[in-house]
Amino acid sequence: MKFQSITMNNFMRYKGQNVIEFSCDEKRNVTVVLGDNTVGKTTIAQAFRWVLYGAVLTERGKQQEDYQLLNNDILAMMDANSKADVTVELVAVDDEKRYRIKREIHYTRAYPQLIAKEFYKKVSLEISEKDDPNAGISVETEKIEEVIRELFPKNLSHYFLFDGERWNDVTVNGVRENIKESVHTLTGLSAYQAAIWHLKDMGSHSVIKKFKGKISGSGNMYDNLEKDRNRMEHEIEQCKDKIKNIEINIQNNNEKIEEVQQYLLENKNTEILQAKYNQLLVVRRTQAERGVAAYKSLVNLFSDKAYMLFAKPMIEASVKMVKSVAGERRDIPHMHQASIDYIIKTGRCICGTPILPESKELESLMEQRNFLPPADIGSLLGEFERTGQRWNRQSNSVYDDLREDAQNVDQSIRAYEETCNQLAGMEQQMDRQTDFAEKRKMLKYYQSENSKLGVEKGTLQGQIINFERQIERIEAEMKSQEVKSEENKKWRERVDLAEALYTRLKNDFEVKKNKTFLELNGQIQKNFERMFNAKDKRIQLTENYEIQMLYQTDLGFREEKNLSEGEKIARNFAFIVTIMEYSRNKKAEHLGVESGGDTLPIVLDGPFSKLGDKNISLIAKVLPEVSEQVIIFMLDKDWKYTGLDEYVGASYYIEKAADEAYASIRKVESDQ
């Protein structure tokens, strides 16, 4: 199967009609659409999904209603009476047929609001001969969706419509996916399952049950045996219904377990972050205290000594001025006129010499008295000068001390603010109210419930085995009492044949299922090694086809669940390539040819966005080999690493002006 073209009209980012014609060449089987981020690459991938399944791919936390399909520019030009339509047409071909799928929605505007209101929608499918596209036959409306899903099974859409940024774990594009069933569909094993189910496992409506109903017997004993058989078959169906409900509950619990485990895994560092957050709160509190202490020290130092620093120039100028006025100093330090008056009054000098009237001693004292305050300011000036000198000595380090304290305050504030910013960043990464203990309690609860359900399921399965054995004995007895007639003989032969076919199919299914699993598990590792430069890693499938990545350790390979986005994409690419390659080889084997076989095309949206340059090249070169057609939407800057130029049969570029909200698609000619 190959896509010939897709035509978008007013679809999301694309205003008016935009057409992409895909390369269907056998060798140059790659079509590339290049563009920068946010210009509309993913919109094209959404167009594929919408035209095939009537829904776009939703992001986590969003619903279909949150996505407006009508181009915003078209909507803005509409008034209350205007009508506009969105259409996407996809043309696909296989070896014989051509399929034209067209989905459309007509809108009005909820004026004056910029909201599009849907008032009419339609999907059409036209099938024609590949060589005569004009002679198409329209499929009845009620059968269109069924035919589309037969051509492009929805449960496989996550493989051939690959979103490199969202394909994650067993959650594919936000939808829980039974990978095992998808693998069975791709590898043809689902046909065995359908046949087995139809023959016997669907209960009262099965082929074998209906055949048995055609056989008649005679007498009350036969009737009683038939009633017992019917009762036990009814019991078996009830047990199977209960098992189905149990399996649904187990699956739901598994999803919840997986969700909690994934949450704990994704938030593995959050608990550490919370501990760091609490430690950082202590650091911030210490920094705040240190900052306050530094500020107090600065204020105290300023209060105690800053006046000396500020007074220093004034004191120096004042001493200089007074000296210039007072002349030569002849004062006795710390002496005043009152001191001389006291000596004269006592009549004796402090040295013991008598102070007599008109004596030389009295004359000397009176002369000295004239040089003491308040008659002379020499001594005061001396004291002033000594105080100034003392302040000068003490203020020599004040400037440096103030500067150091100010720097301490500044550093404390910066450290405090930086810690506050770190705390704010942490708060954005985590919810401080998250109760991890409660999460683990939930995990244990679901695991315990699954354990109980597993026991209940085992009990029911044991009851089914017991009922089946009783039915075998009853049917053997009924067989001996069947009316000997050609009619009964005919239906008995048919029952025996159906039973033998059922047993054969079931045995073949188990053999092929196990063989497929082993082959896929071997091939997936080979492809992983082909596509990725990772000697210390390997991948494998579990029995439920969950994809595990293993890391080399001293004790051998161990599973690692906390993968980077790039590792998840690497793992999933290896899986998808393996499935596609296996499916193609099996179909070729069935057709009796060496290679080939019809496969679904691979449409890749941003497949390499989180991979290294070397891995991009390794992966890209494998894709054209395993699929008949590869369609890639990717960044222009990443294209050079793919090495796919020799495989490209058609290339396009998405153009979007900076001042415009819509994009357009331009075909790139081969010489450009």
Automatic annotation (TrEMBL):
Q: Which GO BP terms, alphabetically?
A: double-strand break repair
Q: Which UniProt keywords apply?
A: Coiled coil
Which Gene3D superfamilies does the record cross-reference, listed alphabetically? Answer: P-loop containing nucleotide triphosphate hydrolases
Residue ranges occupied by any Rad50/SbcC-type AAA domain in the UniProt entry: 5-266
- Provide a Gene Ontology MF annotation, just one: ATP hydrolysis activity
Q: In its keyword annotation, does this UniProt entry include Transferase? A: no
Coiled-coil portions: 222-263, 457-508
| Annotated family | Belongs to the SMC family. SbcC subfamily.
Subunit annotation: Heterodimer of SbcC and SbcD.
Q: What is this protein called?
A: Nuclease SbcCD subunit C
Identify the species of origin.
Answer: Roseburia intestinalis
Q: What lineage is this protein's organism placed in?
A: Bacteria, Bacillati, Bacillota, Clostridia, Lachnospirales
